[in-house]
Write a structure and sequence with these properties.
The complex is a heterodimer. Chain A has helices at about 15-20, 25-35, 40-50, 60-65, 90-95, 100-110, 125-140, 170-180, 210-220, 220-225, 260-265, 295, 300-305, 325-340, 345-365, 370-380, 390-405, and strands at about 75-80, 115-120, 155-160, 205, 235-245, 250-255, 275-280, 290, 315-320. Chain A is of the alpha/beta class. The longest helix of chain A has 19 residues, at about 345-365. Chain B has a 4-stranded mixed beta sheet with strand order 2-1-3-4, with helices on one face. Classes of the chains: A alpha/beta, B alpha+beta.
Chain lengths: ~400, ~170
């Protein structure tokens, strides 16, 4: 299969400007700016069925159309804060196929009338940011960024901005706070970023992978894009496969590919020939799916995975084999969320603190008989009460772990 | 010397990224700049940044405290930050870190006697398919080291040591 996003795997040196250009690079952006109205660009993206790849799956064109045209200036912010345990796709896009991503940022900016766009990268992507800065400078030199592009009145600057180690900054309003030079703590919503975003101005925030799709959609049309994937989830997705598989890595597949195809064909099966016990399809934020043949043959799209009692999210598929104890898994995920809770809202801050005590005690074998019930109780009390999704996510593995794998919590 | 005197060009470049009326946005890149040489941010540097951005020292300190990649005290010249989150742990990260501790003769959170390396256990670094892995945070920024073994890590530390003694000469 030729790739739509991971094109560097098919085309050597596509991360250089000349090779990218030779392969149709910047044609879509140029055509948009010189021949299309911003609303026409948004319509193409809307019709393609593209949904946000950061985890929420919100329709991208609809998000762009929500932008408030009574309040200016507008901003585009690319979310490159990739921090969900199990997710490592955006980094590969930015390193391997950076111009396609940056062209996506440029097209999104034109569509909503933004003259400045920021790429917010997690601080650990220090080297990636330096690399993108070089690529942005090359685009400026070649006339793809800067003032009065292609002889029109449209101007655009793109800047990178490094975070400094905080998972919460992947949450869009926390990201905006961080970009404004504050602690990365989520805002109370509404208002949402398309009406009140960066510096209080209308802002579109899109994930790196989402934006990398955009030039290809504009170049090949909405129908081409919709011809891939499923009715619910159009197009292709990068699945980050990790855990106990033989060949972990990123695999770009159309939505609707099955777990079996991902794990056994691409991931080459399970280490030491063991069997799959559980799957977390959305990283550490995921519900745990009990695996049987039916589950392995389930097509991976947003709607179908939901029928298994989990969300596909960012499609960071963590595979757990039959040697893994689920109480250990839950202890690991809670350790993560306890560390990453920003402290702003009480249920998440206190809930994760207490859950951490309980999972540690249960895992070490020192728990009392009531600890598992208490843990479940704390998690359920948090649900629906947190300011942002982090708190909700932290309870997923706890609740589904205890309810779907009760035998693994019996030692308490 | 104040930050402003030391890095006038860098500061100007950083400030140019953000609207002048929202220059507070520059606090994070300025903190990286302040941390560059000593590996931590001094009280004086926080004061300089507060002054540059018209915010309080408390504002600056609250940013330093919130984000894990900023440090307010001197530790090893290089921080070796091993990811032990779930996907890495499924590929042997915990055992890797344990063996590394044994080889270095220090515990997690401690610094080698020569002050070169502080060993830390950190959250997901988005390299789950290349575990065991860690990043080094030092004067030359942040670098990833992937598909690591204890032997290769010890070699890396030896190389850092050697570079260090050459600088001293």
């Amino acid at each position: 299969m030729t790739h739509v996003l991971l094109r560097h795997r098919d085309i050597p040196d596509i991360n250089t400007l000349n090779v990218y250009k030779k392969n149709g690079g910047f044609d879509a952006f140029k055509r948009a700016v010189t021949k299309m109205k911003p609303t026409e660009v948004t319509d193409v993206v809307k019709n393609s069925g593209l949904r946000g790849r950061g985890g929420a799956g919100f329709p991208t064109g609809m998000k762009w159309a929500f932008i408030d045209n009574r309040n200016w200036p507008h901003y585009v912010v690319a979310n490159a804060d990739e921090s969900e345990p199990g997710t490592f796709k955006d980094r590969e896009i930015m390193e391997g196929n950076p111009f396609q991503f940056l062209e996506g940022v440029a097209i999104a900016s034109y569509a909503i009338g933004a003259n400045v766009a920021y790429v917010y990268l997690r601080g650990e992507f220090w080297q990636v940011a330096a690399f993108l800065d070089e690529k942005i400078a090359e685009m400026e030199e070649a006339g793809y960024l800067g003032n009065k592009l292609f002889g029109t009145d449209y101007s655009l600057k793109i800047y990178t901005h490094l975070g400094a180690g905080a998972y919460i900054c992947g949450e869009e309003t926390a990201l905006l706070e961080s970009l404004e030079g504050k602690r990365g703590q989520p805002r109370v919503r509404p208002p949402f970023p398309p009406s009140y975003g960066l510096y209080g101005k209308p802002t579109v925030i899109n994930n790196v992978e989402t934006l990398a799709n955009v030039p290809m959609i504009l170049a090949n049309g909405a129908d081409w894009y919709k011809s891939m994937g499923t009715a619910d989830s159009a197009g292709v997705k990068i699945f980050s496969l990790s855990g106990r598989v033989r060949k972990p890595g990123n695999y770009e597949l159309p939505f609707g590919a099955t777990f079996r195809e991902l794990i056994y064909e691409h991931g080459m099966g399970i280490q030491e020939g063991r069997s799959v016990k559980a799957i977390m399809p959305a990283g550490a934020s995921s519900s745990l799916i009990v695996v049987d043949d039916k589950v392995l043959d389930t097509p991976m799209d947003y709607a179908t995975v939901r029928t298994l009692g989990a969300d596909l999210g960012s499609a960071s598929v963590i595979v757990l084999d039959d040697t893994v104890d689920i109480d250990w898994v839950v202890n690991k995920t809670i350790h993560f969320f306890k560390h990453e809770s920003c402290g702003k809202c009480t249920p998440c801050r206190e809930g994760n603190y207490w859950m951490r005590h309980l999972t540690e005690r249960i895992h070490s074998g020192g728990g009392s008989s009531g600890d598992v019930d208490l843990l479940l109780n704390v998690a359920k009390q948090m649900q629906g009460k947190c300011l942002c999704a982090l708190g909700e996510f932290s309870t997923m593995a706890v609740v589904t772990g205890i309810e779907r794998f009760p035998q693994d919590f019996k030692k308490a | 010397m104040s930050l402003e005197k030391k890095y006038p060009k860098e500061i100007k470049q950083i400030l140019s990224k953000y609207p002048p009326e929202h220059k507070r946005s520059a606090v994070m890149p300025l903190l990286y700049l302040a941390q560059r040489e000593e590996g931590y941010i001094t009280k004086e540097a926080m004061k300089d940044i507060a002054h540059l951005l018209d915010i309080t020292e408390t504002d600056v300190a609250s940013i330093v405290g919130f984000y894990t990649l900023y440090h307010d005290k001197r530790e090893g010249k290089y921080r070796m930050q091993v990811c032990t989150d779930l996907p890495c742990a499924l590929r042997g990260a915990d055992e890797f870190l344990e063996n590394l501790c044994e080889n270095l003769g220090i515990k997690v959170g401690e610094t080698t006697e020569d002050g070169l390396v502080t060993l830390e256990s950190v959250m997901c670094l988005a390299a789950c398919d290349r575990a065991p892995m860690f990043q080094t945070q030092g004067p030359d920024g942040i670098k990833y080291h992937e598909y690591m073994t204890v032997d290769r890590t010890m070699e890396l530390i030896e190389a850092l040591k050697k570079a260090e003694s050459e600088v001293e000469k």
